[in-house]
Amino acid sequence: MSVPSPSPTLLPGIHRNESYINFEFSFFTLSMILLLIPIFYMPVTIIIILRIFVKLLYAVKDKNVNVPLFSAICISQFMVSCDSRESIQQTDFQCLLFFICDFFFVRLMTSGVFTSWCASVFPNRYLMILYVTTYYVNYANMLFPFLVSTMRLILFAYPQNQAEINRTLLRVALPIIFIYPFFNIFFLITAEAHCSQAWGPFPFGSIVLGFQGSLFGITAQLGGDWTYYAILLRPFGNDLDTCVSPWVFYLTHPIFRRKKITVRVVDQDNIDS
C-alpha cells in the first residue's frame, strides 16, 4: 500500500496551491525593477574590489608592514577564510558572497522567478541551504567592521610593532568570526524551508522563504505587514554596505593614487662652468 501524500490544505505557504503553480512571471513588476537596479553600481564595485585584491598581492610580495590590516579589509570584502600571509595561495575567491546569497534569498524570490516551481514542490531542506547560508554569511560579516577598526587603532597606538600585533589578532579573530555564526543558526538543523506570499508592497507571486520544524521549536521570524517593507528595503541597505566601504577605501587610501614623478633637468653647461 502506498503512503498517501500530505493534504494540500496542511502544507504551509504556497505549496501545492494551483494559483501559484500556474503563476506566470512578468518582467514589468516592482520586484523585477528592484532586481535590476544593482546593474548600475555592482559592476563598478566588483572592479574596485578586484583592484584592492591586486594591491594586496603586491603588498604580500613586497612584505609590506600593513599586510595584516590590508588582509582584514580584503577578507571583509571577499569573505575568504585564510591566514594573512597565506591568503594568496589559499584564497577561495568567494567574491561578494553575501551579496550573492542575499540576491537569491530576497531579490530573486520576490521577483517571482521561482514562484511556480516552489509552489509545485513540497517544503524541503534543500531550500533551507539558501536560508542557512544567507544568515551564516550575514552573522560573519557583522564582526569584520569591528576587527578592521581595532586593527586601525593598533596601527596608531603601537606603530613600532603594529604588524606583529595585527597579524596575531587576525589569526585569532578569523576562526572566531567563522565559527560563532553556528551558535545563532544551530536550531535550523532540523528545519524545513517553505515559500510564502510576500505581502505589503509586493504584488501577487512575490514569495519569501520561511521555515518550520526547527530544533526545540524556536521561531525567530517577524510577522506583520511592516516586515515586508523592511524586506523591500533590506537589499539596498546591504548594497550600501557592500559598495561604500570599498569605494571609500579605494578613493581615499594613498596606495591607490598615482605617484607623481618629478623630473629635474640639469644644465650640463652650467655644471661644467
Automatic annotation (TrEMBL):
Origin, by domain of life? Eukaryota
Keyword Protein transport: yes or no? no
Q: Which UniProt keywords apply?
A: Membrane, Transmembrane, Transmembrane helix
Identify the species of origin.
Caenorhabditis latens
Give the transmembrane ranges. 27-54, 95-114, 126-148, 169-189
Name listed for the protein in its UniProt record: Serpentine receptor class gamma
List the taxonomic lineage: Eukaryota, Metazoa, Ecdysozoa, Nematoda, Chromadorea
